[in-house]
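Can anyone check this?
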Amino acid sequence: MELFLKNKSDALRTFLSLVGVSVGIFVVTVSFSLVDAFSHSVVAGFDHFGSDMIMVERFPVTGGGDWSRYAARPQPRWEDYMALSGTSAGWTAFAAEAQADIVCDGKMLRDCKLLGVSGAWQHLVYSRVSSGRDFSAAELSGAGSKVIIGSKVAQELFGQDNACGRTVRIDGRNMTVTGVLSYEGKNVINLYATDYALVVPYAVARGLAGRDNLETMIAIGPGAEGREAAMENARRTLRASRGLRASQEDNFALNTMEDLCRETVSLTRKISAGGLAIALFSLLIGGFGIVNIMLVSVKERTFIIGLKKALGAKRRRILLEFMLEAVSLSLMGAAMGLLLAWGALALIPSGVLTVRLSAANAILGFAMAVVLGLASGVLPAAQASRLAPVDALRS
C-alpha cells in the first residue's frame, strides 16, 4: 500500500492504528474464549453433581446481604446432619475441612486438605477411588486409622509404588492408606478439590483438627420427593434441630447447584461485557486511526486519483479501492490480535481451564475487523470518489 511508504509519520500512524485494532480483537477473542471455557466447566459440574443437590451452609450463594451477619452463623453441625439423615428421603453427606501435614519415610507434604466425611461423601467430589478400596460402613462411622489419599499426595510420597497398605503419619497420628483417588484437576463447579486431599472419617478429622477448627457442610440428594419438598423438609428439620422459634429467621442457608450455576453464569456475563466494552473502546481508537490514515492518503494521492478518473476510472472503482484499503488495514490488525490471543490462551495451564481459540471466535474477530474497516473507510472513500478530475490534476 502506498500510504505505508510515504514517511515515518505515516508509518507511525499506521502502526498505532493496527495496535488499536489488534488490542480490541485480542480482548474480544480472549474474553469470549474464557466464557466458553467457563460454560463448559459449568456443564461438566452439572453433569457430575446434578442440579438438584442441596447444600446446607452458612452463606447463601445468591442474594448478597449482610456478610458479617452470615459469618456469625453457626456452622452446619454433626447434630444437624444426624437429624437430616433421619428425615431425608434421599442421600445425605457430611464433610468437614481443615489442613494437615502428612509424612512417610522422611517425605513430608504440608498443608494438605484434611477432609473428614460421613454418609454418601462420594457425591461431593469429582474423583473416585482408583486403587485400593473405599471405607467400610464401620470405618466411616468410627474413629479408626484409615485414610484415602489424593492422586498428587500418592505421587509425591510414593511415586510409582503402590500406596495402599502403607503407613503414614498425619499430624502425628499413624494412619493406614486404604485407597487412592483418581486425578481430578481443576473445575469451576467444584465442592472439594481432592488431588492433595487426605480423606478420613469425620470422627478422625475431629480428633486431629478439633471440632472448632473444621469448616463443615451438609449435602442432601432429594431422592424421589423432589428438590422443593426436600428443601422444605430440610428447613423444618434444621430449625427444629437448632431450636429456632417461629419468630426467628433461619440461621443457615440452603443452596443448590442451580444457584451456583446461576452465579457462575452471571460472572461469565460480566467478564464478557467488561471485555467487550474494553474491546469496543480500543476498536474505536483504531477506527479513528484508520480514518485519519485514509484521509491523509486521499490528500497525498489526489493527483493520482484525478489521473485515474481522467483515464476513465468510474467513481465506484475509486470508492472500492479505498474501502478495500481500509478493510485490509483492519484485517492486518485483526490478524495480529488473533495471534496474540492464541499465544495468551496457550499459556493458560490445561489443568486450570481447557481454553482454546475456537474457529467461531476467530471468525468473529475477522468479521468485527471487516465491519470496522468498512465503517472507517466510508468517509475517506466517499471523499476520494467525489474529487473532480480537473481539480484533482491541478492539485
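Reply from J.R.: I decoded it. The first strand starts at residue 54 and ends at 57.
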